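ARCHIVE CARD
Drawer: 12
Card no.: 0347
Subject: one protein chain, sequence and derived structure
Cross-reference: see card 0346
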Amino acid sequence: MLHILLLCKILIMAPSTSGLPDGLHPTPPMGWTSWNTFFQHNSEEKMKSQADALLDLELDKFGYTILTIDDYWQLPSRDNATGRMIPDPEKFPNGILSLSNYFHERGLHIGIYSSAGRFTCSGNLPGSLSYEKTDVEMLLEYEIDYFKYDNCYPRLDGSVNIAGTGIYIDWTQSLEHLPSLWQSPSEESRYQVMAEEIAKVKDKRNITVELCAWGFGNVESFGPRLGHLWRTTFDVEDTWDSLLYNIDVNDENRYRAEGVQGPNHGWNYPDGLFIGKGGMTDGEYRTMFALWCSVKSPLMLGSDLTKLTRESEAYKIITNTNLIDVNQDPLGVQAQCLKDCCSHGSTGGLIGASGCYHFHHSWQVWGGPLANDSFVIVVVNRFDEEQQISMDWSVDAKLPPGRYAVQDLWSGEMVDDAAVGAEEWEGGAFKGILPAHENWAFKLLPLQSV
């Protein structure tokens, strides 16, 4: 009975505003994050180099304007007098405010990192648990625009119950709420405190909040109330299997439920983009970008921009305006897997390839509605070899009956019209050879209904 009363109290005390009361991000945010690029080896000099490269490449004109300092920016101890975190003077000799000014003077936005725990995921640097008010004052002082809030070391004593991790699993709650895992204390109880402190200073500064909850604690149930975007998965890696795992988990039924994602709620986030880093092929990076855009994920780049050129394939991928327009579509509906899906069952995508034959043995179709009665369709070849494919627009892509003009989102060219509900020879299918791990991406615009 006590836990029911406590839950009721939390709900009553929750802010009555929606997840986006400040008008931030009616479409998914876009930017760059230091973690996938530099991991713990970040610095003021490196952050400035990324900002300069971003502007030189004119990526800001495509919407990439947020640059986030991830973990390892601070010293292991807080200031004894103020309780504030202290920037590492070797990495950030001029402090964070100086860097913030550097970004703002150039029309960019700055993000910074902490964790809803005793430590950050570093295991020894201070997190924000029990220091929420102090750390929000720090965000104001540094003129921070974007706050990434992680989920490591949730207990005040810093203890864990899985060796070698920053995790303290609540096994009872996890088994009850699968495929979502829960920690103790819960994600909602810890994120709630920080969200309330940030809400108190909303009139001074609108701060974007990323709840880096890894899908734990059923983040979809409180993310729209406490943040602007929320991680649905574990960290993505620069590999094909990791790409597939994260996009599958992001496609679980719970994330596509009514009231979870969209312009009035916030954004499911399967983690950042590795495009151009080198661990995957260009074809695999194209598939990553097409899927991330179609599911309306925030687009956070994660490769060294100083090594990017306008002639590179990576640059062409991340500046594809057709796909960016899909990502920023005002309707904001997350595309979903429609054929040979891996995460729509009771265990979601939690167990990955071992729980789904189609993980490596399928050509999938992903799709969803866009504004003005249009649709996005992405066909992904998950086989390790090319496939001869005949995709039925009705059976496989599940489009409503009608005739559609079809745009190839990679080339920008119009291809043969689709006649959904018609005979195959009249345009009922799209046929071709799709290389391993590659994709086709289409936008369908209505011509007439049947």
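Annotation on reverse: Confidence is low (pLDDT under 50) at residues 1-21. The CA atoms of residues 293 and 327 lie 4 Å apart.
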